[in-house]
Write a structure and sequence with these properties.
alpha/beta, 10 helices, 11-stranded mixed beta sheet
Length: 384
């Protein structure tokens, strides 16, 4: 891809144009991560929301990524990207508008979204804009020191904590080999979960037992601020939806598992279900969306569900293919071989069908059908 060619951003298909704004939760919560003892943990959030198309006719489109974020992506993913000159000239834009006027008197269902460990707040911008164009407010949450770069509204920037991957998979080589064995395993859901659980308790306790609760607190802090300061924009009478990629998807599952009275449905994009799920249940509808390589890491979701659960597996996909990076990174080993536009359209349709059913309550049951791109499995409640 030429350095003079802009990233081709997908055009949202909903009836609304999309506005965006950011806020940062500056709170008194102690930072527990090893790299910043004695500090406070601040949470940056970018919100995407529906607006009338005529209200943005004369507004410029929002910048997609900051120059610093572009450099962080290039450094952390070890690939040449095509952003640098475009960022300097201001040509790289997304299909949304900074601080576009709200639709007066209208409130919309809320979805909270988290990036993965080593991701970034804008990692799924194209998906979230698509959701907003169909009548959702979507708040994308940054997790300091656990994204490649976290940018606060006051200009503060936090880099990815050194050594965090080694702490999450410790010791690294045995952990990777053990998890690789899990991804290749075959068996019943019970057998696959027993294998994964034994591995993650041995090698991944920092990720699932220590960091996961902090990510839940990050998400709840972002929600609390939005509810207190923008109640005119969000409609949470039917509850809140949650989603995320990788660690963010695991966080969505944990929130639905721990506080189903607030977080009433969710989607996990390719996040292994690390953490302690013993003697727990999940009372709300949830969907696991995986590439084939990681489908064995989520089977506990189909053993402890008291509500309907879904498993959607996309063919020819890799882990980063669930993010915007599929439109940029040419390496199939990282994003998979599925055409980026087909992957984007498929992931968007799945999200809309699920949230239209369980958050907007537009129908009693989602219309999921398997095809040559995605295979769906529906699980009736396993726990009575």
């Amino acid at each position: 891809m030429s350095k003079k060619t802009p990233v081709k951003t997908p055009v949202p298909t909903g009836e609304y144009a999309v506005g965006t704004f950011t806020y940062t939760v500056y709170n008194d919560r102690e930072e527990t991560l090893y790299c910043a003892p004695g500090t406070k943990r601040s949470i940056p959030v970018r919100v995407y929301y529906p607006v009338y198309r005529e209200s943005v006719k004369d507004l410029p489109k929002a910048r997609y990524l900051s120059k610093d974020m572009v450099e962080a992506i290039k450094k952390n993913f070890y690939v040449p990207l095509n952003y640098d000159k475009l960022e300097q000239s201001g040509e790289n834009r997304s299909e949304c508008y900074e601080n576009a006027p709200f639709i007066e008197g209208s409130r919309f269902p809320l979805i909270l979204f988290s990036h993965g460990l080593g991701g970034f707040r804008e990692t799924n911008t194209f998906l979230l804009i698509e959701l907003a164009s169909h009548g959702y407010v979507v708040a994308s949450i940054g997790h300091p020191y656990e994204g490649i770069l976290t940018e606060l509204d006051d200009g503060t920037k936090y880099k990815l904590a050194k050594g965090i991957t080694s702490k999450c998979y410790s010791p690294m080589i045995p952990a990777v080999l053990a998890l690789s064995k899990v991804t290749r395993a075959k068996g019943t859901n019970e057998e696959l979960w027993a294998l994964f659980d034994s591995v993650q308790r041995k090698y991944n306790r920092f990720l699932g037992m220590e960091r996961l609760p902090e990510w839940e607190l990050d998400t709840k802090a972002a929600f609390k601020y939005l509810n207190e300061n923008h109640s005119d924009l969000i409609d949470i009478e039917s509850g809140v939806g949650v989603g995320g990629h990788s660690m963010g998807g695991l966080t969505a599952f944990a929130l639905c598992e721990d506080e189903p009275e607030t977080f009433v449905c969710g989607i996990n994009m390719d996040g292994g279900l690390f953490g302690d799920h013993k003697e727990k249940e999940i009372d709300v509808p949830f969907l696991q969306l995986n590439c084939d390589a990681n489908k064995t890491t989520v089977t506990v979701a189909f053993l402890i569900n008291k509500a309907v659960a879904y498993h959607a597996v996309l063919r020819d996909m890799q882990h980063l293919g669930f993010t915007d990076l599929k439109h940029v990174i040419p390496m199939k080993s990282m994003v998979g071989g599925l055409d980026p536009n087909i992957a984007h359209d498929t992931v968007c349709r799945i999200h809309l069908e699920f949230f239209d059913t369980y958050l907007k309550k537009q129908k009693d049951h989602p219309s999921f059908e398997s095809n040559d791109v995605v295979k769906f499995t529906e699980y009736e409640p396993a726990v009575k």
